[in-house]
Amino acid sequence: MHTMVQAGTMADARSSRGAWLRDVAGFAAIVAAGVAGYWLFPDNLALLTRIVAVALLVLSIDLVVGYCGVATLGHAALFGAGAYAAGIACVNGVTEPMTLIAIGAGAGALAGLIMGAIMLRGHGLAQLVLSIAIVQLFHEAANKASSITGGSDGLAGLMVSPLFGLFEFDLWGKTAYIMGVVLLLLVFAALKFIVSSPFGMLCRGIKQDPLRIRAMGAFVFPVLLKMFVISGAVAGMGGALAAISTQVIGLDSLSFELSANALVMLVLGGLGTLYGALIGTVIFMGFEHVVSAANPFHWMTMVGALLIAVVLAAPGGLSSLAERFLGSRGGKA
Q1: Are 7 and 137 found together in one domain?
Q2: d(CA 58, CA 121)
Q3: Given 3-state DSSP classes, what are the helix, strand and coil percentages for the chain, each rounded to the nearest 5?
Q4: The pTM is what?
Q5: Same domain, 65 and 8
Q6: Dist CA 265 CA 271 (whole Å)
């Protein structure tokens, strides 16, 4: 018996060490990708910053869909709430970048609280319908409140102060890109901690078997609502980053199309891994940019073909292919 317990302890230690090494490798890969993007594509930093902002949105969706099993097609409402909150604050004299990010996170968290309180009353298909209705309501509200949001013309000409009073937001987007990559790393580290915590494990349990979790005495609704608030804060930071980097906010930040594309990016990369959200965003937006420039008339067909090929070849997303490859290499070693 003592030998079995000792073997189990050693196995757990090896497992935790392996997870730690994978996380270190993952963070190193994110940093390497960020540095490579800065040096290899200096003329496309605005696009790369947009990718980082959307990656935060896709990460927020992964928290709700991948870890909690809540179906949603309206997460752009949280992204747009953060963007408009930061933009309105900037127009009214709040120009410090990190303060605007915090305002975007707060607005996104509040929108997530409202969205979660409504959506979690339904189940399955009803949740999808509610999420679509919510994003449409947010879109219409922003359109009608033209005196505050600019309506269909949007908010333009946001004047943001230099970051920490030292680094100005130049025309090439260098400061915005570096700030975005650092923000992404910090948020990703925080989310890895959250999903690995007892709270994150409880969310996974609710996704797998909510009835059993209720039978154990846990309250499902508050747990899911808390994850919606965290998800909203992450999406709101992405919206604020987009507003700061482009200095323009339009109704497209609250569009159903953005929600649908973000969910497609998550499915492309893989659900419930966080890494899949980053992989799917980079692959989808990079492929879309290259193909649309090469063939402006039929690029959507080529994007659709890519999605079909990935779903058929790797139903678990591109991250599952990477895990399978690394697992086979580890087995051989």
Answers
A1: no
A2: 23
A3: 80, 0, 20
A4: 0.89
A5: no
A6: 10
